[in-house]
Design brief:
This protein is α+β, with helices and mostly antiparallel strands. The protein has 2 domains: 97 residues, Immunoglobulin-like; 115 residues, TonB-dependent receptor, plug domain (Ferric Hydroxamate Uptake Protein, Chain A, domain 1). Helix content is 19%, strand content 39%. A 6-stranded mixed beta sheet has the order 10-11-16-17-14-15. Strands 3-2-5-6-9 form a 5-stranded mixed beta sheet, with no helix packed on it.
Amino acid sequence: MKHTRSGWLALALAMATSGAAQNHGEVHGRVLDAVGEALPFCVVRAEQGGHAVGVETDLEGRFVLKPLPVGTYEVSASYPGYNTRVVEVVRVDPGLITRLPVIELRSTLGTVVVVRERWEEPLIRPDDPSRMVMTTAQIKTNATRKDPVKMIASMTPGVTKARNSDELYFRGSRAGSMAYYVDGVKVTGSNPGVPSEAISRVSVYTGGLPAKYGDVTGGVVAIETKNYFELHQQRNVGR
C-alpha cells in the first residue's frame, strides 16, 4: 500500500509539473550596444500588471525570462549610462519560447532616455513550425481581410479554400476534418462567423495539434476576438 501511495504521489507531482509548464512560457533575447558588442549584467524585466520577472544578461548579453504566465508583457532593458528600451505587447504562449530581436542600447550623456517599440509576432515560430499566427496588424493590412476564410487560406501555406464554399482543406485532408475555435469554444460549420474587425489574433495549426484539439484529424483555426477596450479604442480611432 505504501508503494502504491508513493506511486500515485509521484504521478500527481509529474502531472502538476507538466500542467504548470503548459501554462507558462519563456522570453529569450540578447542586448547589444550600438557597435554590436554584448552588454553583460544588463537588467531585463518582463512586466504584466503588478507581476514582474527580472534577470541580468550573461557575458554574451543573452537573457532568459522564465517562467512567465501566459499573456502579454512589456519587456524592458536598462544599463547604467545607456538609454532604456521597452518592447511592448510581447506575447507569451503556453509551453513556447518567444524570441525577441536584438535589443540595442545606445550610450547617453546623463539624460535618461526611454525608447519604446512594439513587438511584431512572426508568422511562424521555429519551435512551433506547425502553427502560423496572424496578428491584428497583419490582418489589418491583408487585402482579403473582409473575408476571414479567404484571408486564412491566402496567408497559410498548405491551406486552400474550396471554389464554391467556405470549406478549408489542410494539406489535402478530407472535407470536414478541420475545426474552428473561437475564444476556446469549438464552432460548427465551415465559417467561424466572426467579422475581421473583431478578430485580435488567429492561430492556424496545420499539424502536430495540441492535446486540447485531440478529436480533430485535420487542421485547426483558433480565433481570439478583441476585448471591449480594444473594440472601444478601434471605434474611436475610426471616427
